[in-house]
Amino acid sequence: MSGAATGDDDPAVVALGGGHGLYATLSAVRRFTHDITAVVTVADDGGSSGRLRAELGMLPPGDLRMALAALAEDPEGVWARTVQHRFGGTGALAGHSVGNLVLAGLAEVLGDPVAALGAAATILRCTGRVVPMSPTALTIEADVSGLEADPRVSRCIRGQVAVATTPGKVRRVRLIPSDPPTVPEALAAIEHADAVILGPGSWFTSVIPHMLVPDLRAALMHSDAVKVLVLNLAAEPGETAGFSAERHLHVLSQHAPDFAVDHVLVDSGSVPEGREREHVARAAEQLRARVTFADVAEAGTDRHHPGKLAAALDQLVRQPRPELAGLRVEGRHPVQQVRSVSGGKERVSWR
């Protein structure tokens, strides 16, 4: 693992999310620690995951598979590429990912989805481990406006794919069931974490759902870990179309009004200097967070650069806690705008 940290001082990091957003976070985090737990959403109902979920009654494996691939010993090696490989053609296997089928088989043989993920991680020689946020497959339901003639009227949309692709404006999301259990391994990892990272990812279907699982939310709120929220580089068509960085923060606060984080990490290229950054900083006050602006994007894309993101996260995770430095005032962090970590340059040359 090029540039990876070694030694006993590796921070214990828990990363929460799903899909490509979590893949980006894990690809970055593995560069500065080996002690990683990925806690993954389990509400996907589309594609291969949706088919296996419906036919076998299993947890949707797609997001779990992607997290495993991100943590594989060699993410570009034959095994990682094979688990990510999707069958073509028009037969029964068409559209299925190899890794999804492997996880389905392991879950049936071992009788436990967490054990199945552990076995798959052993095959891939993963750095860290992957666990679902709940042992129960969940359903996302959303209130969406803009689908009726009266813009004030909301329609209830059910299912992750439907919510992610709706042409309307998502106002609020819920989970069905509303009080699902949490995997004990996820709670234990958060309890012992040095840092917790939430985002980036599909805001309503991969990020916010973690705050809607009661035990998971309580564990996050009571954790002493440094908490970092990584914002998306751009609004996502359908799910968050037209959302500014500021709006992303407001929506998270609305769904979890008592949740606080230490840092909000924002790509410096996605929010112009001046008034827009001031708005982001004010929105971060709802989360009692400090805002850091840093260059974390792959040039010319809406994707996070693993090396740049690693450098920014490593710096935030390892810096002294604000309250320990005497900076906490009446239970809140002073909002500070940092245009770019290390003056716009990476402190470490991550490859």
TrEMBL record:
Transmembrane parts of this sequence: none
GO cellular-component term (any): cytoplasm
GO terms assigned for molecular function: LPPG:FO 2-phospho-L-lactate transferase activity
Xref: Gene3D superfamilies: CofD-like domains
InterPro entries, per database record: CofD, CofD-like_dom_sf, Gluconeogen_factor
BP GO annotations: regulation of cell shape
Coiled coil: none
Keywords in alphabetical order: Cytoplasm
One Pfam family hit: CofD
Location of the protein in the cell: Cytoplasm
CDD domains, alphabetized: YvcK_like
The keyword S-adenosyl-L-methionine belongs to this UniProt entry's keyword annotation: no
Functional description taken from the UniProt entry: Required for morphogenesis under gluconeogenic growth conditions.
Similarity comment text for this entry: Belongs to the gluconeogenesis factor family.
NCBIfam families to which the protein is assigned, alphabetical: CofD_related
HAMAP family: Gluconeogen_factor (MF_00973)
Name of the protein in its database record: Putative gluconeogenesis factor
Source organism per UniProt: Nocardia vermiculata
